[in-house]
Amino acid sequence: MADVRYLTELKRHLTESSQRNRYYPVEDAGKYGGTERGRSLDFSRVDLSHAELVDANLSHANFSYANLSHANLIGANLTQANLRGADLSHANLIGTELYQADLREADLNGAYLQRTDLSRAWLMGAELGNANLSDANLHQAELNQIHFYQAILHRAILTQAHLCGAYLFGADLSGANLAGVDLRWANLRKANLADTNLQGATLQSANLSGACLHRANLQGASLQEAVFTNAELTEANLHWANVDDCYFHPAAVQGVIWGDRPPSFR
Q1: How many Å apart are CA 223 and CA 142, to the nearest integer?
Q2: How many CB atoms sit inside 10 A of residue 183's CB?
């Protein structure tokens, strides 16, 4: 459970911040001292598990290697916060603002991140197994070597994100927007990519064995040496996709739109 001393101090800071800025919107908090107070909050390596921090303004705060497991952070503002190596397993982060936050090597297994803003956040090496990121915004996020084992990313926005070498085994990416994403060497085995937008994405040497890509948009994608063994590509759009040296056998390719670039099987 949370360390009472540190939790009391944190709540005191938040109360003072709320009183001083009650008439100012969150986006103006830095102008009136909110940013400075956030930077003064140093809770690195502190136990804040199960803490109630709903709608708290914690932008720029330092929670590196802190224990926030099972914490309630619904609607909290953690813009540019330092959460590197923090334990956020099973934490409730629904609707939380994590723009440009540092979550490298953080433990987010089983976390609730629906509708969370993680745009331009750093999550390299983070663990998000079985996490729920439905409708989350991960635009231009740094996700290299991340673990999304069986994570839910339904309708999530991952445009121009970097997922090089990411582990997405069994992840649900149905309806997600991954236009222009970097998925080189990613493991997407048995992932659900039905109705996903992968236009212009880079999936060179990615493993999509057993993945579902029904009606996926792969127009103009780079798929060189990608593996589609036992994948379902029915009605997918591969118009102008680069499929050189791809491995499709056996794969379901009924109704695939190949355009002017015929498929290559080897």
Answers
A1: 21
A2: 29
Q: Is residue 9 part of a domain?
A: yes
- Tens digit of pLDDT for each residue in 170-217? 999 999 999 999 999 999 999 999 999 999 999 999 999 999 999 999
Question: How much is the average pLDDT of 244-265?
Answer: 76
Q: Which domain holds residue 33?
A: 4-40
For CA atoms 146, 129, 76, 114, the dihedral sign is positive
Question: DSSP string covering 164-224, please?
Answer: TT-B-TT-B-TT-B-TT-B-TT-B-TT-B-TT-B-TT-B-TT-B-TT-B-TT-B-TT-B-T
Q: What is the per-residue pLDDT for 4?
A: 58
Structure tokens that stand for 92 in this block: 């409730």
User: CA-CA distances (angstroms) from residue 255 to 79, 201, 238, 252?
Assistant: 45, 21, 11, 9
Q: Is residue 197 part of a domain?
A: no
State the total domains in the chain. Answer: 1
> Residue 21 in contact with residue 29, Cβ under 8 Å?
yes
In the predicted structure, residue 234 carries a pLDDT above the cut 60: yes
Structure tokens at 265: 């099987």
Query: 249: burial class by Cβ within 10 Å (0-12, 13-18, 19+)?
Result: exposed
Maximum Cα–Cα distance for the chain, whole Å? 67
What would the two tokens of residue 194 be?
């039905």
Residue from 175, 181, 177, 211 nearest 195 by CA: 175
Residue 32 in any domain: the answer is: yes
pLDDT at 111: 99
